[in-house]
Amino acid sequence: MKKHSFLIVLLLSFTSPVISQNIDSVYWAKYNLSMYSDCGAMKFLYQIPKFMECFPLKPICKDNSFGYKMIEVRTADYKYGWVDIDDLGDSTYFILKKAEADKSAEKKRIEKLKNDSINAEVYKFLHSKQIWITEVSAKDYGSQSAGIVVKFLNTSTKTIKYINFTAVPYNQVHDPVIDDIGKSFKACQLIGPILPDGDATYQTDILFFSSIVSYYKLKNISVQYMDNSVIYFNYKDILLKQ
Question: What is the pLDDT of residues 229-240, one digit of tens each?
């Protein structure tokens, strides 16, 4: 009986306990991870931010129904609880991942500076004039008539009241068109208000009674602002080429 008792005690002494050996002194969160109230991972306490330092307080525990290797830790911001050790990285992992994150952040910073520079140049270019025509297009309306779409961008510091212009139609071989009722140009007016840095569209479905209008040129362009001041513009000078 004593011999059997001795063997049982000896066997127990070599049986792996639920709590295993200690781990290193400091780890880092691989990503945003969950902290729990105990080894069983039953009650959520807190979300640990990525790269947060975690200091182990106890050895690894496997006493849970999920098969997690849990460890009690204190975070750098003094939160206490249990986490899955597989969600933690050692110093080597941290250094590599932090370097990757820093590289990515630097790449984004450089890209932002580049985009900001491009945007600044575009802004400067656009505001070098007080108004732009961003589109002039001919639209077929049925088989015997043509419409027009003209888009404007107000890059001045004042609100526009009216934009007046004359539309002249051309065919595909670049000759002026005289439509079926003898019209070769049409006066148009876009009514505002168009705020600074705002855009507006003049559109009509039937401008000329012709089936051969390919495109338009504009002339006699004038802009009247809300203070009733008027400025005249040359079509080629304010046509924004795409």
Answer: 999 999 999 998
